[in-house]
Amino acid sequence: MLQAIGLTSARHRGLQPAVDDLTFEAGPGCVTALLGAPGSGKTAALRLMLELDPGRGITYFRGRALHRVAQPAREVGVVLGDVPGHPVRTARGQLRMLCAAAGVPASRADELLDTVGLAGLGDQRIASLSPGMDRRLALASALLGDPHTLILDEPAEGLDVREADWLHGVLRSHAARGGTVLYTTSDAKEAARAAGQVAGRVVSIDGGRLVADQDVVEFARTRLRPRVAVRSPHAARLAAVVSREARAARRSVEVVTEASSSRLSVYGSNCAEIGDTAFRHGLPVHQLADEVGDMGPAVSHVVPGGPARRENGADGNGLSEAEAAGTGSDGPNPVGSGPDRAVTAGPDPGRAEGCSPAPNAAGPDLPPPIRRRPARGPLRPVRYELRRLFGVRTTALIMAVAVVASAGISVLLARDGRTPLPNVLAAWPSLLPLPPAAICAGLLGALSFGDEFRYPALAAGRGTVPRRLGLLLAKLVVSAGVALLLALLVVVASAASLRLVYGSDLIRIPQNVMSLGVSWSGLTVGCAWAGLLAAGIFRVTAAGVAAVLAVPVLMVPLVQRMPKAPTARSMTGLPGRLRELAWPHWPHETDRWVLAAMRVVAHPVGTALTLSLSVLICAYLFTSVRGRVRW
After folding, report:
1. Could you give the C-alpha distances from 433 to 438, 443, 605, in angstroms and in order?
2. H helices within 430-512, ranges in order?
3. Which residues is 228 bridged to in the sheet?
4. Rounded distance, CA 328 to CA 339, Å?
5. Which of 7, 369, 502, 555 yields a CA-CA distance of 20 to 30 A from 102?
6. What would the DSSP string read from start to end of 356-397?
7. Contact at 8 Å (CB) between 629 and 463?
8. Cα(357)–Cα(174) distance, integer angstroms
9. What is the β-pairing status of strands 224-231 and 287-294?
10. How far is Cα 243 from Cα 40, in angstroms, rounded to an integer?
């Protein structure tokens, strides 16, 4: 059961909210269509329900708000727009990455690829998939955690009849298993087709407000009015003749001229009567078809339904009554048979009133539910982050560029003999604000959040990217590990290049190697964290890179210009005083580590980096708390 209560989007500059006090329900075992014209607030309502946008109101998923659900992927499956993934990632790699995020076995990815018909395209890149295949992969992503509720935004938009029929079948199958399905559409006839066999509901909204909440039978009876679509080169004369004969016979017939001057819509008549009238007056007819027209959300009168008729050459502007009623035809391609069968909009005889699982709903079989629920643990987000990071070639390419560039720069710096050896090994000339390793580590950190905001992967998890503490810690740990690995590779590559070019006499181990190692590691890890946090705050990779470059360009000069005391005080004896304050007494060897860390922080770059990280952490926490949807 999905309950949306009082959804109201935030006002912007005095404008009316996109969603205004919207309240409705979507029951289990039921396909619910959220119907509205483009701009009516359908997508905004879904984003409010998923707590992606600020606003008021609350949505309960089986009695719990989304931020109260420990594992959102197991409760809600979401499809918002195109498939949420990096275009160079493979379909199988994308699903396995999301399996790690949802805490399900990686074999689930292969099951769903087979279910959605992508078993042979698992190694294809996302960018190479057609729109129909792209939508299938998005649906597989939503079904990974075996969720109870499916929320889809315009899932059939841009799909052909075959793909749309397949998609509607999957939705009906999920509802038949007792699940809840809510999807948006701007086509009233599609809403009647999609929910027909599962006795679904249609929630109509306009201007962000609720207009009607009806079961599909009542919706089709009150809003989808039978009509005859006529196309003739003499449409105006035919309209006058039909109207005149209807008045003479005292029949209620309405003739509407469409935007095209050659097309008419006739209400209250049928194809036989219109054809006989055109024949008697010698008027040619190029098209004559029974359709069901959308009367709009303001329609309140009831039009009794006539006998089922089959569409004969309709051009897509209406739904044939045979499709609306779900009956077959005696033609060579009857409705309800074959891959292009229409979906019935009539009542299901095997169902009671309301929404409950249907015993024999049409559609493909879904993968079996996940019986064993893995235990929660800290490694689940770490596995997800590792798959996200190394699932594309970007990470390896950035690290390779950093290592090669550092090796070349170190050889050039050692040529004049005036650059200190630590700067040579780090490939840090005075002309650069930061060494290549630190810049690349910051770029990888920025991509950690930036790529996810650009290609969102976890739409149902507390924001476009879930800002949970576990995921943030996983990103910090993985980015720190990659930064340390990159720092080590750069030093090793620089030393090997120097030994190859100038011999082994140049490489000498300095006495303060421990302090230098801590400083070098702290610089790379700090830059990676600065890029990660800035990209998480501003939701773009460029902001993370800018934050990394701002440390030496802005923060270091600011720290250096801070007023200094006339006499400097020494921190000698600080480790001993800290040992006296601490309850557990650490060994004396730890004193060197404490002093090395203090020297790193006391350096202008270290101080600037520490201040930057402190500000970014506070800003990240502030935006995370402020962005939560509250009642």
Report:
1. 10, 15, 10
2. 436-454, 469-502
3. 266, 290
4. 14
5. 7
6. ---TT--SPPPPPP--S-PPP-THHHHHHHHHHHHSSTHHHH
7. no
8. 9
9. antiparallel
10. 35
Task: Report d(CA 180, CA 177) in Å as an integer.
Answer: 9
Q: At what angle do helices 513-538 and 469-502 cross, to 10 degrees?
A: 130
Cα–Cα distance, 508 to 562 (Å, whole number): 36
Largest CA distance in the chain: 112
- Residue partners of 500: CB distance under 8 A and separation at least 6: none
Q: What amino acid is encoded at 623 in this protein?
A: T
- Tell me the one-letter amino acid at 41: G
pLDDT of amino acid 373 = 46
CA proximity to 34, closest of 8, 42, 319 = 42
Long-range contacts of 94-99 (CB under 8 A, 24+ apart): 94/126, 94/137, 94/141, 94/391, 94/457, 95/137, 95/140, 95/141, 95/144, 96/387, 97/384, 97/387, 97/388, 97/391, 97/457, 98/73, 98/141, 98/144, 98/384, 98/457, 98/458, 99/144
From residue 68, alpha-carbon distances to 8, 45, 209, 462 in Å are 20, 19, 27, 10
- C-alpha 598/C-alpha 361 separation (Å) is 68
pLDDT along the chain (631 residues), means of 10: 92 83 92 92 91 88 87 86 79 89 86 91 90 89 91 88 88 90 89 65 92 85 81 90 90 80 85 90 90 61 33 38 37 32 34 47 62 53 88 93 95 88 90 91 92 63 52 90 96 93 81 83 92 88 91 74 56 58 57 59 70 84 58 32
Give Cα 492 distance to the centre of its chain: 40
State how far the alpha carbon of 338 is from the alpha carbons of 196, 311, 341, 518, in Å: 18, 17, 6, 68
Of the candidates 536, 541, 412, 417, which has an alpha carbon nearest to the alpha carbon of residue 473?
536
Question: Which residue matches tokens 């559609």?
Answer: 363
* Backbone φ, ψ for residue 293 (5° rounding): -95, 150
Q: Which residues lie closer than 8 Å to 493 by C-beta, 6 or more apart? A: 403, 404, 406, 407
77 phi/psi in degrees, rounded to 5: -110, 130
Q: Please identify which residue in the block is written with the tokens 């339904």.
A: 305
DSSP output for 533-588: HHHHHHSSHHHHHHHHHHIIIIIHHHHHTS---SSPPP-TTHHHHHHHH-SSPPPT
d(CA 113, CA 92): 8
Length of the chain in terms of residues written = 631
Tell me phi and psi for residue 187, to 5 degrees. -110, 115
Instruction: Answer yes or no: are the C-beta atoms of 4 and 31 closer than 8 Å.
Output: no
Buried b (16+ CB within 10 A) or exposed e, 444-482: bbbbbbbbbbebbbbbbbbbbbbbbeebbebbbebbbeb
Q: Any idea which residue has 């970007």 for tokens?
A: 394
Give the 3-state secondary structure of residue 291.
strand
183 neighbors 195 (Cβ within 8 angstroms): no
Give the Cα separation of 50 and 78 in Å (integer).
9
Two structure tokens written together for 546: 């800018």
